[in-house]
Amino acid sequence: STGGASAGTGGTTPGTSATTGGVPTGATTAGAATTAAVKNAYAKFFAPDTPENISLGLLQDGPKFKAAIDQQASGSMAASASVQVSSVSLISAKTAKVSFTIFLNKQPMLKDQPGYAVDTNGTWQVAAYTFCGLLRLEGGAPPACKQPEATTAPK
Question: pTM for the full model?
Answer without folding.
Answer: 0.80
